[in-house]
Amino acid sequence: MIALPEPKAEVLARRDDIVAGLRSLLPADAVIAEAERLRPYETDGLTAYRQVPLAVVLPSTTEEVAAVMAFCHREGIRVVPRGAGTSLSGGALPLADAVVVGLMRLNGILSVDYADRVAVVQAGVTNIGITQRVQEEGFFYAPDPSSQLACMIGGNVNMNSGGAHCLKYGVTANNLLGLRIVTVEGETVEIGGAHLDAAGYDWLGLLTGSEGQLAIVTEVTVRILRSPEGARAMLAGFRANEVAGACVDAIISSGIIPVALEFMDRPAIHACEAFAHAGYPLDAEALLIIEVEGSVEEQDRLLGQIRTICERFDPVSLRVAQTAEESAAIWKGRKGAFGAVGRISPDYLCMDGTIPTSRLPEVLGRIGAMSREYGLQVANIFHAGDGNLHPLIMFDANDPVSMHKAEEFGADILKLCVEVGGCLTGEHGVGVEKRDLMDVQFTATELDQQRRIKSAFDPGWLLNPHKVFPLAAAAA
Amino acid sequence: MSVLAPGSEAELAASIRSAWEAGEPLAIQGNGSKAAMLRPVQAARTLSARALAGISLYAPNELILEAGAGTTLAAVEAAVAAAGQQIIAEPPDLSALLGTEATQTIGGVVAANLSGPRRVAAGAMRDHLLGIRAVNGTGEVIRSGGRVLKNVTGLDLCKLLAGSHGTLGVLSAVTIKVLPAAQAWGTLVLAGLDARAAVAALSAGLGSPYGVSGAAFLPAAAAARVPALAGLGASAALVRIEEFADSVAYRTGRLREDLARFGRADLLDDATSRAVWRAVRDVTPLAGGPEETVWRVSVRPSAGPGVLEAAETAGGRGLLDWGGGLVWIAAPAAAAEAVMAAARAAGGTWMLMRAPETLRAVLPVVPPEPPALARLTRSVKAAFDPKGILNPGRLFAGV
Ligand SMILES: Cc1cc2nc3c(=O)[nH]c(=O)nc-3n(C[C@H](O)[C@H](O)[C@H](O)COP(=O)(O)OP(=O)(O)OC[C@H]3O[C@@H](n4cnc5c(N)ncnc54)[C@H](O)[C@@H]3O)c2cc1C
Known about the structure:
- The structure holds 2 protein chains of 2 kinds.
- The radius of gyration of chain A is 23 Å and the shape is globular.
- By secondary structure, chain A is an alpha+beta fold.
- Chain A has 4 domains: about 10-105, 2-Layer Sandwich (Uridine Diphospho-n-acetylenolpyruvylglucosamine Reductase, domain 2); about 110-225, Uridine Diphospho-n-acetylenolpyruvylglucosamine Reductase, domain 3; about 230-270 and about 285-330, Alpha-Beta Plaits (2-Layer Sandwich), CATH 3.30.70.3450; about 345-430, Alpha-Beta Plaits.
- Chain A contains 18 helices and 18 strands.
- In chain B, helix 12 (about 305-315) packs antiparallel against helix 13 (about 335-345).
- The longest helix of chain B is centred in the N-terminal third of the chain and has 14 residues, at about 10-20.
- Chain B is α+β, with helices and mostly antiparallel strands.
- Chain B contains 15 helices and 18 strands.
- The chains are: A alpha+beta, B alpha+beta.
- Chains A and B meet through strand 9, helix 8, helix 9, helix 11 and helix 17 of A and strand 8, helix 6, strand 10, helix 7 and helix 10 of B.
- Flavin-adenine dinucleotide binds near residues 80 and 103 of chain A.
């Protein structure tokens, strides 16, 4: 288990005063302090870790956020920002002596401008909510994490989330123009705006993916894009992971960048098929889902070219969707992958390392060997075009030995990712989960450099202080 | 002025370490092609990354390239072109505009976060920066990012250092994402529109489902300086498609119908398209003399025509890229206040790209930051460069 820092006894002792102080700043229903009502906030998507916070506040405006931050700063109280709480790395996990600032009531879409292709939304708007708002005009917000029904744009910004289509459209960082933030002192600051490439230091780039370490985001200016004429998927099953990997290489080398290029290994194929009945080939060792965009003729041409490439790799199955419905059927299994694995195993850890795509066969081989050594099943789903792996390690959380082994197994996978030239996390963030592995990827000097930046924004380390940086280093 | 040009990262670190010990400021550059930009740096010595040259890794099938910061952009572009790929941000060659013969380095392009017309569709240089190696102001080697396409491990120092103009660290190597170059280019030209109508047309193009990869407007005076457009004798609104050849034909056809309400659109062929967009990218239609000021203003696209008009009223010339959002302006020194006021009124930002040194020393070369951000700028600068020896004053006086 990963250790949480000792709560400040002095803060715990002042709990009632602190709650009263918060109540003086916010409407009555925006401050939660009763044990049973705090319970829903005790964890996030990394459910193995739980901690009830001191209090939860649910501000409805930037001004309320600023008032809470100024108060907590003055009182020396730690703050944990929270969107929808879907983080898979424990990014939104509370601390016993911290106030959780939940952004879900900041849920307004403030403006949409189709001519300039931007929307200004509050931090608690869901990812899908942006696309739903603009799709009637034929537009969409591009980054599409699988959690998009629930997760919020403020969380996406802080995790720099990706999605199945980021091979073409980029991740969150590539689709932002501006932020409104509240600093740890409670000051409101505008970053960027509706224009590209603000001058001065790239605050937008630094804040994106900063995991709630630097500031609270209350508003986000996103780029919206016109949807393509259409999109269609195909599915190709292969006899071995290496063969599917080589096929991915061949597609990219041909000069075609599909909008999505997803990979599933045998256990993932079986889990998804049992769950979704998507018609996945059960005799394949590896499966690719490939999507292209454009007019119907353009889709036909691209899918034809990709099909020809796939045929060179002796596929056990090849299916090109002819209609939107057939495309949706191909995606159905992949989109339900987490739920599917959840049906086989009560608990699973979703890992998120990235590797150089050329090392895929070797890495999958070594993950397979580890799975046998640890005696834990693993299913691999991954964004093949960009090398972002999602091994799902299945275990039983009621069994401390199983849980411990799963964590060790996960850590070994991430170390392997770094060893082959990759990184600890491609899109889920470091959070608490990978905090103690940071020194596998970075030198002490590099971590110090990052900590000095954290200190520049948050000299007292009040914002989400137990995440991202190894605990000993953070306390230093 | 003496120039240090260390030949290895270790030597680079040692040079900075000793400058730090001595508290001696350094002017940081690659080949100095961007010396005309921003504020002049007061430093007895110059530290150049030019000897840190060479492509250390290029894996076309993984879409990545790593090179020493001193590698010339031309060398990188030639290497990727040989494999049918390109730097998608389309970095400009501003040598004519900035009045320099120096060949730019990849480190300089990244440190200035310079992108071309494709930025509006495909992202900026910083969006395709995967990894950096840099030396901070105390001589420590810092890596961030890496050689993989997706990475959110730790704070993103790649983006922070891109566009920091050598004030936070000296890049020793960069890893960038490269992408396939499109098979064919096609450009629609609508002649004779005024700036507002042109930006409306560009906006319609960028808001279409056809994947427009460039959208620019050249007023008549600028168009006259582009050989392929000079014959128009009028302004030119340009909309670009880069795709497989069949798709270029199809998409420009559909776009032409969509844009018919703005006027007739003529199609430029592949070779002409490339020449025209090179001129837009490099801003050659505005190249002038050393007494002029050159501004790069970024605003929301619909505000571009207003900024252009303000600059013209003040005696300047300009052109619009990024669908109207990027306003390039060449103007007499006296137009400075008007340009900055127009950018400010539009809620945008600016960068002074070229001006006589006396002006660069006194004008805000980028917009002054509100107090809270100015404080962060100083403390983040101190977190990298506590003695303020790297390019002091290049962006802001005293930082
Ligand atoms: C089933 C499932 C599928 C997923 N699929 C994907 C996927 O495809 N791609 C992907 O990238 N991720 C995925 N995730 C992970 C997760 O959804 C993302 O990290 C998401 O961006 C988190 O958003 P959230 O609103 O839930 O944020 P939270 O989990 O509440 O918070 C995330 C982090 O951001 C901070 N934070 C949140 N809001 C703010 C704010 N306004 N200001 C400052 N800090 C803030 C928190 O402190 C925390 O550190 C998935 C998760 C699940 C459960």
